[in-house]
């Protein structure tokens, strides 16, 4: 009986190797990065695909920076308006 328990314990510790990545479904699939270009594609096609993805990432970063700048400008205007009100009241 002890041998059976030992074998069962060893079996639980070993994880079977995954043969391939499991696909995510729904919203999780949309948030993941695009799959890398397969080696069966030509060199130029892989390069074009990676450059396209890099450009897309750069555009997203620029959009985020612009949003941050707009938020800062909005905060500055609010603070200036607040100072103006204080000076008028005081």
From TrEMBL:
Residues 54-83 have a biased composition (Basic and acidic residues). It comes from the Eukaryota. Residues 44-53 have a biased composition (Basic residues). Residues 1-18 have a biased composition (Low complexity). This is Uncharacterized protein. Residues 1-90 are annotated as: Disordered.
């Amino acid at each position: 009986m002890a041998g059976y328990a030992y074998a069962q314990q060893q079996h639980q510790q070993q994880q079977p190797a995954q043969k391939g990545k499991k696909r995510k479904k729904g919203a999780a699939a949309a948030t993941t990065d695009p799959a890398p270009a397969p080696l069966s594609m030509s060199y130029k096609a892989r390069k074009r695909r990676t450059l396209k993805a890099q450009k897309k990432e750069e555009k997203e970063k620029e959009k985020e920076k612009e949003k941050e700048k707009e938020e800062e400008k909005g905060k500055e205007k609010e603070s200036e308006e607040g100072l103006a009100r204080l000076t008028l009241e005081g």
